[in-house]
Amino acid sequence: MESYNLITEPWIKVLDGKTNSEHMVSIKDLLQNASDYRQLAGEMHAQDLAILRLLEAILTTVYTRVDQTGQKYDWVTLDDKMHLQSYKNPKELKMKKALLKTWSTLYDKGSFSEAVFEYLDKNREVFDFFGDRPFYQVTAEQYDSFVPDNKKIAKGSGTVDLMQINRLISQSGNSVAIFAPKSANRKNKLTLDELVRWVITYQNFTGVTDKTKVKAKGKMSNSRGWLYTLNPVYAQGKNLFETLMLNLLLFNPNKPTYTQQRPVWEEDLGEYVKKRLSQVKPDNFAETYTVWSRLLHIEWQDGTPTIFSAGLPAFDSANAYDIEPMSTWRKNKKDEFYYPATRQLSSIGIAMWRNFGQYINVKRISDSSVQEETEEPLTVAWLNYLKTKNKLLNQQMINLHTSGIISNGGATSLMPAAEFDDNLRIEADVLFDETEDRKNAWPQRIEEMVDLNQEVGRKYYGFLMEVGRIRFGPQGAADFAGRKSQTFYDNLNEPFENWLANLSGGDDRDEQQELWKKQLKQIALRTLDDFLEIIAPRDISGIKADKSQSGTKSTESNIFIAANKYRAGINKALNKNEK
Predict the structure, then answer these.
(1) Most buried residue, 145, 219, 336, 488, by CB count within 10 Å?
(2) Residue 478 in contact with residue 413, Cβ under 8 Å?
(3) Lowest-pLDDT range, 53-67, 159-173, 227-241?
(4) Distance CA 28, CA 8 (A)
(5) Residue 111 — left, alpha, or beta (φ > 0 → left; ψ -120 to 50 → alpha)?
């Protein structure tokens, strides 16, 4: 095959904004008509996120070099390909004013300027899936130069099947994916557009099953895909243009200095591999968005691809919040560093609202001296900055979205086990409340309600533990309670998400909180009533209670005693903080 240029060939799946029909478009078509498309629509949400970040890398690179009219900023020097040759550190105020004007003009216009397409045209060769610089791949000569002699292409080792690249299947040569969406004779077949999408996705969500690694002086471990390590968060707009714009950070709002953006296709391969072997952390968004976990080379024979894969080492993720906008963070108590809040299988059923404090630093809002357990995602900080400086998002709904893949947790494989996708809709005036009384600001009030929900949830878990002891004894109680307790949150998720979405900056906070408390009580009691519809004779007769576990003077326990304790616990939780 001679050429398959991603700029002009249709390979990205999108949904039409008017008809909701699916289309296949090129990068150029997507960026020219982004406002006509509702969203990306690939094989899975995690794939859409990987492609969204690729598109953001293009836009971030272009619009940190030239303004909305296509004129370069006066502090940069560009070559004939619009690559950054050099730059002088501009004054902070000047830089912010210029970049923010570019962003605002594009947003108001509702479309991207010709500068993006000029950049793509001048860099056409690096967006070709074939050729001398195959996109997101390396040539045969380059691959052989970076791997040990016994792993060179001629040896035929170090290959990855298409059914493993395809993260809907993720079947390795050692175990069969029984419930795959493709039949056995179709698992190892992909169309060219599918292959492109999965190669990009695989670079972002790679496990650690690969046996081949690039040559290194010392011992090294294969990295997993960078997106695989994150609990992502990004803003989703009314259409694809708005989504791209809301996530287009032209500078770090917390440390507003000019940064050279270097997507992977602008890097010299030798220098890039050297940097990765040194485990140097990226220092710009475009590089982080396009980071490779593998050197991939594709051999073609009669139109059939064979993929060779060599692992690259991971860079240190500690305190990487300045170069990764789309992630939540947790502080490690041992070293006091912030690390990506990686999702586990045990957290797959946890809705976004339950981690509200990871998306906006509630305690820091009410007290700037507080050292928080989480670091606010830069994407959220950028939206706050836009609202504060441009007043663009006042009274608009912010739709925070999360998508990704959770691994099986196996240290030697990290094979995909589940996909997650969720969102949190909230008005900008609520999320970024500017009330002078910071302890009365909406984020603080919302976090109080989240804590209340969790407390009532724990009361329901306690009720289930007691029922579990009645039915199965002490050994089986925890398993029973763990399986059944999700019902409470299943009943709670939609009502609480609707309550959040209907809040506005002008609402009476006490009144809205009381409305939610009443609804929470109704949900908690209805969940109990539903459970009590089917009970067994053993639930009624009960058991002799373990005093150390029951915490009560009663010597007996049955389902009615447990239910009354739960009702009392609900009332206590709801009345605890009333003024």
Answers:
(1) 488
(2) no
(3) 159-173
(4) 6
(5) beta
CB 23 within 8 A of CB 16: yes
pLDDT band with cut points at 50, 70 and 90 for residue 168:
confident
The β-bridge partners of 306 are 299
| Count of C-beta atoms within a 10 Å radius of residue 274 | 11
In whole angstroms, give the CA distance from residue 232 to residue 400. Answer: 10
Residue 417 has pLDDT above 70, yes or no: yes
User: How crowded is the C-beta side of 158, counted as CA atoms within 13 Å?
Assistant: 26
> Is residue 40 within 8 Å of residue 48, measured between CB atoms?
yes
Render pLDDT for 520-578 as a digit per residue (tens, 0 to 9): 999 999 999 999 999 999 999 998 755 555 454 445 899 999 999 999 999 999 998 66
Mean pLDDT of 327-352: 93
Are residues 288 and 132 in contact, defined by beta-carbon separation less than 8 angstroms?
A: no
The one-letter code for the residue type at 124 is R
Closest to 58 measured CA to CA, from 27, 98, 89? 27
- Is the pLDDT score of 368 beyond 80? no
Q: Are 353 and 499 in contact (CB under 8 A)?
A: no
Q: What are phi and psi of 401, to 5 degrees?
A: -125, 150
Rounded to 5°, angle at Cα 377 from 495 and 203: 100
> Is the torsion defined by CA of 114, 23, 406, 6 positive or negative?
negative
- 75 vs 323: CA distance, rounded Å: 22
Integer CA distances (angstroms), 301 to 154, 218, 249, 298, 304, in order:
14, 35, 42, 10, 5
> Using CA atoms, how far apart are residues 451 and 464, in angstroms rounded to an integer?
20
Measured CA to CA, the distance from residue 522 to residue 512 in angstroms comes to 16
Backbone angles phi, psi at 171, to 5 degrees: -95, 125
d(CA 304, CA 323): 38
Residue 409, pLDDT > 90, answer no
293, 209 Cβ separation under 8 angstroms: no
Helix (H) or strand (E) holding 52: helix 45-63
Q: What is the DSSP letter of 320?
A: G
3-class secondary structure, 412: coil
* CA-to-CA separations, 155 to 139, 150, 163, 253, in angstroms, rounded: 16, 7, 22, 50
The two beta strands, 304-311 and 159-160, are: antiparallel
Residue range 293-337, pLDDT digits in tens: 999 999 999 889 999 999 999 999 999 999 999 999 999 999 999
